[in-house]
Write a structure and sequence with these properties.
mainly alpha; globular
Amino acid sequence: MRCDVFRRELADHRRSVIGCSIGALLLVALYVFLYPTIKSSGAGVQQLLNTLPKGFRSAFLPAGVSYLSPPGYLGTELFSIIVPALLLVMGVLAGSRALAGEEQNGTIDLLLSTPIRRTRLTVEKACGALVPLFVVAAAIWLAIVVVGPSQGVVLSLGNLTLTVLAVALLGVGFGMLAFLVASATGSVGVGGGSAATLAVAMYALSIFGSLVPWLTGFANAVSPFHWTGGSAALTLGVSWSGMLPLIVCPIVLLAASVVLYERRDLTA
C-alpha cells in the first residue's frame, strides 16, 4: 500500500503535534491579549527603544517598523525568535530521529526487509517527520487571525501567511539538514547537534550583520533568519529573494539525503 511509511511517521508524531499546536495557540493568544496594554504604555516603550544604540536597535527593530503597531509588535515579540525557535527545535528533533532513530532502536532491518526501496523510504520518512511543522504553523496563523481582531491586532493577511510559511520553511530546512547528517552517519546526536549548531551560528551572524556594516551583505545573503524577514516580515512582507532559498534548500537537502542513503552500507 502506498505511503505506509509516511502515514506511520505522521502517526508517531501525532501527540507532539497536538501538544505543540496547543502550546503555540496559548502562547500566541497570550501575546495578542497583552497588546492593548503594551499599546497604552506606548510613550514609555518608545522612549526605552530610543535609548538603545542605533545599530543594536536595528538588529531587532528594523527601520520602517513601529513596535507599537500590530505587525511591529507581533513581528518583534513572536516572529523574530520565539516562533522560529519553536519550529526549528521541532524540525531538528524530528529530522534527526526519522531514520537514524530506526537504526538506534534496531528496527531499520525490519523496514528494509519489506519491498520498499531506500529512495521511497527516505522521502516518506523525511516528509512524515517534517510535514507536522506546517500543522503547528497553521495553528499559529489561525490563532492570530481569530483572536487578533478582538484585541486590535489586525494584520495584512498576505504578509501574515507568507511570514508563517517562511518560518515553517526555516524549521523544515534545518530539520532536513539534521535528517541528512543523521541518516548519513546513523547518529541522532550528530545529526541534531550539527543542525542546531549551524542554526545558532546563522542566528548570531544575522544579529552581528545588523551591528557590523561590513558584515551586513554577507549575513543577509547566507543567513536563513534574514531570508524570513525577521521582525519586519509582518510589516514589510517576505521578499521572494528570501522565500526562494527557503523553498529550494530543503529540496536540495532531501535529494542529497536520498543519494547518500542509497549508497550507504548498512550491513556494517
